Amino acid sequence: MKxxxxxxxxxxxxxxxxxxxxxxxxxxxxxxxxTTQDAPATPMPDLTGVALTTGRLVLKELExxxxxxxxxxxxxxxxxxxxxxxxxxxxxxxxxFITGIAPAxxxxxxxxxxxxxxxxxxxxxxxxxxxxxxxxxxxxxxxxEIGFWLAPPARGRGFxxxxxxxxxxxxxxxxxxxxxxxxxxxxxxxxxxxxxxxxFTMEGTVRGKRIQRGRVVDEWTGSLLASxxx
Length: 230
Hints:
Strand content: 25-35%
Strand order of the largest sheet: 1-2-3-4-5-6-8-7
Distance between the termini: 25 Å
Radius of gyration: 18 Å
């Protein structure tokens, strides 16, 4: 399916929190004493109200007026096959996500979900999310994971590649991220093509990592680094 990563902007999924660094108390690994490099990282800023534009799209927060549209789009069998949205997907799922989960995660600075609106008529085409936004802490670089889905009529027109590039540029320039990760259930070739066109490097297959609709599945993984030429 065009433009579906397994994270898929998770409309209706549970809120996510940045992991709290664990105190280390002895030599090596979890046994060594904390140093200044192990200090908890500075939290990311409140991301409420952030909006982006491209040549054909306006990327901004989903609004209550979009609840019925999101509900309808998420009935698409391919979205339910390749993403982690609830199945069956109900209007209550969309309402909880758009009015509660997404705004709370934006305010916490851990996630930023954008609706993809066509610039010419304002129609909602899909959604893209930057998830688990995590500052660097001296042991790991700052990073996040990207996910997306696109309504069937909008597929095959390059909209999602355009959106992925815009969100990644913003994340590197404004959030100072070092690494953005992409994952997809094997064999979601359409999502893989979007990631490749957006400049991601494929890093391999992680076997048996996810449970999707009660079935253990493999996962493709890739990344885009701030240092990559684009």
